[in-house]
Amino acid sequence: MTNTLKPRRQFESLADAAERTGLSIRTLRKRIAVGELPAYRSGPRVLRVDPADVDRLMVLVPTA
Question: What is the pTM of this model?
Answer without folding.
Answer: 0.81
